[in-house]
Amino acid sequence: MSRERRGALAALVLFGLLAVGAGTARAAKYAGAFMDDGGGARALALGGAFAALADDPSAAYWNPAGLSGQPGRQLLLMHAERFGDLVDRDYAAYTQPVDWALLGGTDGAFGVSLIRLGVDDIPFTDHLRDRLDTNGDGVVDDTELQGLFDLQDQIRFESDAEYALFVSYAERHGAWRVGGSVKFIRQSVGDYSSVGIGFDLGLLRRGLWRNLDFGVKFQDLTTTYLSWSTGENEVIAPVLVPGLAYRFDVPSWDAVIRVAGSLETHFDDRGAADQYDAGSLSFNAHTGLEVGFAERVFLRGGFDSGWDSDHLTAGAGFRLDPLTVDYAYGGDVLGIDEATHRVSVTARF
Fold first, then answer.
1. 73, 124, 199, 303: which could form a disulfide with 156 (CB 3.0–4.6 Å)?
2. Of 157, 175, 78, which is closest to residue 119 (Cα–Cα)?
3. Residue 165 to residue 10: CA distance in whole angstroms
């Protein structure tokens, strides 16, 4: 199929959104959705159940409190592609301990991380609205939309680039670790762009009871506002993510088994879009299991926001200091016969 014809087919779906939204990229309750998968193949293989584990550089996203107490400087890099190579997603995180504490605690740590999502060849058809509205009623109906095939050579193709920069800090206070991130958001779709700033806060308690760890992330704590160049504004509502993780030591196998779960809680009336809903509240459950042998070879599995095969996650990891390589598989959550595959590399130095 030619690029133009493929674009025309996609435009049939996108036209209504573009005509109504006047350049706004998505409905407000899904604003900033490009950040939702976070980063790090290990966390993703565990179904995103990482709020209480949070012990690698991706903690800057999953629970910034987990940066405190991590050893040495670390760099994590991840790249993923979807729909062939139409959607590119990159994640990078650098973390290091520091010998100072902003809040008078101990084990201070600093981190910088970046999420980037890019989509090429997005068809823009809003400039063709008047020509498609052949009866002049101000509405382009399904029959009139078929006219896009005759105008496919006039469809404009643009790119979408979305960035989120996280600057994170954490330290320890007694048995608790506390951390936060300031995130700067920049999105652009064709001629339209937006900017925003938000805040995440995390708490982490190792050994709450025996080998049980507790963590919680307050995402977009103060509500995050995105201001678009069109004059439209979007709001990213706060999200609460509590989590638990338990460690089982198996000395006879020289193995460690970690079981983790978290509950992503939304307050903005997302309804059936989430796994469970009750009035304005909705929830997504994340569960994961990791078996590590000699802290060198790891097998992982989990479920991300569902209990069927489409929401199954799995993966593996191999550590040969100073490098750790992790792989994550994600099921066909969009129902398009396409699973996701992610690989990340972490270096300690």
1. 124
2. 157
3. 30
Dump pLDDT digits (tens) for 223-243: 999 999 989 899 999 999 999
**Encoding tokens for residue 85?**
């190579």
CA distance 292 to 220: 33
Instruction: Dig out the tokens for 69 from the structure.
Output: 């107490």
Q: What's the maximum distance between 2 C-alpha atoms anywhere in the chain?
A: 77
Q: Which long-range contacts link 237-242 to residues 24+ away (Cβ below 8 Å)?
A: 237/29, 237/266, 237/267, 237/268, 238/267, 239/264, 239/265, 239/266, 239/267, 240/216, 240/265, 240/267, 241/51, 241/63, 241/216, 241/217, 241/265, 242/51, 242/214, 242/215, 242/216
> 16, 132 in Cβ contact below 8 A?
no
Q: How many CB atoms lie within 10 A of CB 308?
A: 9
Helix (H) or strand (E) holding 257: strand 255-266
Under 8 Å between Cβ of 325 and 342 = no
Residue labelled with tokens 């590590």: 292
Residues with pLDDT less than 50, the chain: 1-27
Q: Which domains does the chain have, with CATH numbers?
A: 30-123+157-348 (2.40.160.60)
φ and ψ of 81, to 5 deg: -130, 145
**pLDDT digit string, tens, across residues 29-41:** 667 888 988 899 9
pTM of the model: 0.84
Quickly count: other Cβ atoms within 10 Å of residue 94's Cβ.
Answer: 17
Q: How far apart are CA 202 and CA 130, in angstroms?
A: 50
